[in-house]
Write a structure and sequence with these properties.
- Chain B: May interact with Ccs1.
- The complex is a heterodimer of chains A (about 550) and B (about 325).
- By secondary structure, chain A is of the alpha+beta class.
- Chain A is built from 17 helices and 21 strands.
- In chain A, the strands form four sheets. In chain A, strands 4, 6, 10, 11, 12, 18 and 19 form a seven-stranded antiparallel sheet that branches. In chain A, strands 1-21-20-3-2 form a five-stranded antiparallel sheet.
- In chain A, helix 8 packs antiparallel against helix 11 and helix 14 runs antiparallel to helix 16.
- The radius of gyration of chain A is 37 Å and the shape is elongated.
- Chain B is an all-alpha fold and about 325 residues long.
- In chain B, helix 1 runs antiparallel to helix 4, helix 3 packs across helix 5 and helix 6 crosses helix 7.
- Chain B is flat, with a radius of gyration of 22 Å.
- Classes of the chains: A alpha+beta (about 550), B mainly alpha (about 325).
Amino acid sequence: MSSLLLNPHKALFTASSSFPLRSDVNAQILVASRRAATRIVDCRPRASRDSFEAEALPETNAKKKNANRKIILFGSSPPPLSEDRSGAAGNGRGKPGSEASSWGFFQKALKRALAVLSNLPLAIAEMFTIAALMALGTVIDQGEAPDYYFQKYPEENPMFGFFTWRWVLNLGFDHMFTSPVFLGLLILLACSLMACTYTTQIPLVKVARRWSFKHSAEAIRRQDFADSLPKASVKDLGIILMGAGYEVFLKGPSLYAFKGMAGRFAPIGVHISMLLIMVGGTLSAAGSFHGSVTVPQGLNFVVGDTMNPNGFLSFPTQSFDTEVHVNRFYMDYYDSGEVSQFYSDLSLFSLDGKELMRKTIRVNDPLRFRGITIYQTDWGFSALQITKNGEGPFNLAMAPLQMNGEKKLFGTFLPTGDADSPNVKGISMLARDLQSIVLYDQEGKFAGVRRPSSKLPIDIDGTRIVIEDAIGSTGLDLKTDPGVPIVYAGFGALMLTTCISYFSHSQIWALQDGTTVVIGGKTNRAKLEFRDEVNGLLDEVPELVSIDQNLNG
Amino acid sequence: MIFTILEHILTHISFSIISIVIMIYLMTFFVHESVGLPDSSEKGMIATFLSITGLLVSRWISSGHFPLSNLYESLIFLSCSLSIIHTIYKMGNHKNYLNTITASSTIFTQGFATSGLLTEMHQSVILVPALQSQWLMMHVSMMLLSYAALLCGSLFSVALLVITFRKNINIFCNGKVKNFLIKKFIFGKINYWNEKRSAYKNTSFLSFRNYYKYQLTQRLDYLSYRVISLGFTFLTIGILCGAVWANEAWGSYWSWDPKETWAFITWIIFAIYLHTRTSTNQSLQSTNSALVASMGFLIIWICYFGINLLGIGLHSYGSFTLTSKILNN
């Protein structure tokens, strides 16, 4: 029974001998035509090209030779671009002279490579493999030292019986997303995309655009959806179709209408935008700069000092000679005390001191300047400014303290007494954010909380301390990425073309056969809705009560 | 304060209504076709949709930000989108035998969200600075809509597989009846193809059981194709919005974060689904693509839930740990 499922055509033919159908011939042609007609992206240029061409262009005899020649040119040997343009001159396949042999060899190799690459099952297998490798990349911890893998995937006790650290390190799974295996597969997929687009989709578009009338009622009846209206005029049908949004062409007794042509172009657009994204991504990976820096409020740095190149195409630009000055770093808080946003007021100066730009950045709102982008990513506590017994102000540097969890903690120490003695005692001050400082006395007991803005003094062990200011430091990430415009273009194109390819390309043929109109139609995606729609439209065609001699217009 | 009470009430209303609706569906399934009940179940679904939407809106108002900042809210949004799909499908079609899938998905997600497992996340929390962006609405809502659509479509495909291979298993089991059933199957198929060619040319007698089963599988196949292509469009837009947002916030549009990677894997699997549908062998096409879509179902759950359970990477806003209630029991 399973073999029956796998080979229904066989079942069809065996059954036809026992149950009389309308016509076996029709059934066979139905199968063949459906195979040709429903194939949208099947990347097998050779086998079905002829039958498809026979279905779609039986009538344009005048153009047939040229069209045939053009299509045969594609089908049998996809030519390099120069030959395509000289197509009118005939098959300019081989150049005369001594170059013929090497050129011909190159052409044959190219043709064979294209045929192999545009195989759809191969592309599907590639996609599966890439997906599997990516899944593996999330399971195996990336970027650790080799020692880690020695311990995690030991040879004495291999996972699943064979998976040891040798697999991980030799195949590059510890840096999966930049490993040669993964990148090679991506390149292969890109080649398959290009080959498939070139050999199959572009010719398909050319054929789909060449609309043709069908001049025989049989040809029309063979469509997926076929019907006939006994007393009707093809012109009425044309008007109703136009009202429903179709583009209608009427030539004598025959009619051709289509809608949603964009749905045919869109898959090409999808593939091209994916290629664009890949190109942009490659450019990003090879040619960008990245750096991060933590700058206390009030200090500055030069852009070029912080940046590191990413790949072999990274070239520093003129804008690297800019100096960035952190005017102010501050944070906003919710009523509950949680941080709501970080702000850094930055000024950019050229090296001779002229101010070029000033902007306050925050998370999700970076600064862009001549190709460089500065992001607010982190923050720190640089120093605490206090006065002690009226003297000062002193700047005490704050150090980050290790704690479990994500919250930061900074602390500093103000020694009372001899600072050089080994058992130095002093006042400790801790802070989670720039808002409030917690003070502890010499024994480590809690002394009080102060806010820098209040300027209230606190007495601890006889010392009067006033917290003047909390100086924060901002964590900035700098980046320049030449591939971003290309990638964004690819993103936009991909979003648009994916939406468009949801539409269905519907075609309707009709023929005035005496007083009957024979209608046939097909669509590539929305089959059920198409049938309902056409049924509805056909219901609206007026029935002619008295037949006029001047019916055919 | 009003809004928290309102929220509370709406949560309970939505959960109870949808439980009732599921009960009604189950009853109509077992106790065939009680007259007044399908109508009330439709109304029940609309009521559920309205109450879930009301819940989300009241959360939005009370917390001041779009209600999509942690796992609980995203689950509510998911059940809302599933009920949207259910309503759209109901408005467009008259046959409603696929309600069981959409309605039960809604109840499962809603039930899980409101259950005791996630109580610590029920309160609305304030947004951390990285989430304070317009992109939050666009990216997360697109992703959840796409998850809903893709889940529906994959469930249709799973149903298709179950029906197809159940037929197989039955026929395998009954040896003597085998030939008879085979003939019925072919006959039903031939007649269906005839029917497809010309909608108005009805040939005569049909083998009822297999014909309807075949028609059901065809319909499931078609529906899953349409729903999955819609979900694929949303998924594409969602992933790309996320990439643009990441570039604005963190400086890099793709950093191979586990959640990003798994979303990409989901995208690839459904792209494979769409490509397998172009193959020429008709029944093989539907079975193959249904297999791929079923794989996609599992992968969506890994992408949505599994990564959040691990709690690693830049997307850790959605992470959670099962409450101590479960662990202590």
